[in-house]
Amino acid sequence: MKNHIKTYREQKNISQGKLAELCHVSRQTINAIENEKYDPSLQLAFDIAKNLGATVDTLFLPEGSKEK
Q: Considering the domain boundaries, does residue 64 fall inside one?
């Protein structure tokens, strides 16, 4: 699943480690999600969005969808 987590995270000046801490997961989990190697659970997607001040639909794009 494509996502814009890295862009939002960098705009907020939050490291992968800090975002991971806020979401109660490992830094490796955030890295894998950013690199599209792992799709987060729905709860984790909401946690990431909340901590980045975004919505799930702005952070994640379903496969096959065109980027805005």
A: no
